[in-house]
Structure formats: structure tokens, C-alpha cells
Amino acid sequence: MESDQYGVCDCGGYKNPAVAVDAVALREVEGDTEALLIRRGGEPEVWKDRWAFPGGFVDYGEDPEQAVLRELVEETGVVGHNPKALAIHGDPNRDPRKHIIALFYLVDVAPESIPIGGDDAEEASWVPISTLSASQVAGSHMEIIEQLRK
């Protein structure tokens, strides 16, 4: 059994990557696409205060589709439904903490939802994706934003 700061792993002697989920919720406002984003707090320090899609780790025994809806509520207070797979990012070096495979889901939310930062999010807000630059966004989330801009 292997233990680290992210929990205990009974991996049968194998060192496996962790699985994370991220909720991509969008709305249209006056011809502009806005994404529901959180401003990161805490770890990793390199991404502190940067925008990211709300998300987190899948709990053991949890379906990733349920995990993405749970994380959305925990970090923004917004209830989502109907998650649909959008992208998978698996580069072993994409996260400085360890090898994390990220599953991005498009999630439907009420466009009038008012997000409130919670859990490890310092802030949650609707942000026009046209205004974001790589220096403002955490990790590989900018790749998703660029995909959405097309």
C-alpha cells in the first residue's frame, strides 16, 4: 500500500495516476461566451490566483460524472446536470503535484446562476473567454479555452 499527501492507494503494487474532473459550464451574454471559472487558492502555488474550471479529484468508488457535478457545487455553489465528456488531458507533466489525468466535461447549468467561491476556490465568476490569456489561466485549462473559442 502506498501513501502520500493525497491519500492512500491500494494499487496492487502499481503506481497509478490520479484522476481529476473539471466542469466546463458556458453561457452566452450579449454575443460573448462566458465560462464559469474559479480563482485558484492553495496548491499548487504556481497556479494560485489563476482562473480554472471548477474541479477536483474523483473519490474512490465515485463515478467521474457524479464527481464533476459534486466538485462544481463545492467550488461554485452552482448545480449542474447532464455532463458530457469534452476532453482528456493526460500528460504526466501537466500538473506539478503528480501525474493526474484530467477529464473535462461540458455541464449544463442555469445561465442566471450566481457563483460563490467555496472549498479551495478563492472566487467563482462568469468570465468572458475572449478576455483570457495564458498567464491568467491555470495549467492546461487554457487549451480548453482555446478549443472553445473556435
What does this structure look like?
- The protein has 150 residues and is mainly beta.
- It is 15% helix and 39% strand.
- The strands form 3 sheets. It has a 4-stranded mixed β-sheet, with helices on one face. Strands 4, 5, 6 and 10 form a 4-stranded antiparallel β-sheet that branches.
- The longest helix has 13 residues, at 64-76.
Sum up the overall morphology in one term: globular
Mean pLDDT, to the nearest integer, reads 90
- Please report the number of helical segments: 2
| Helical fraction | 10-25%
Spans with pLDDT under 50 lasting ≥5 residues? 1-6
- Total strands: the figure is 10
Could you describe the largest sheet, including whether it forms a barrel?
4 strands, mixed
Helix and strand sequence: EEEEEEEHEEEH
Short characterization:
With 150 residues, this protein is mostly beta strands.
Write the layout of secondary structure elements.
Blueprint (H helix, E strand, L loop, with lengths): L1 E3 L2 E3 L8 E7 L1 E4 L2 E9 L10 E2 L2 E3 L6 H13 L3 E10 L10 E10 L11 E8 L12 H9 L1
Parallel strand pairs: 3-9
Antiparallel strand pairs: 1-2, 3-7, 4-5, 5-6, 5-10, 8-9
Note the main attributes of this structure.
150 residues, 2 helices, disordered N terminus
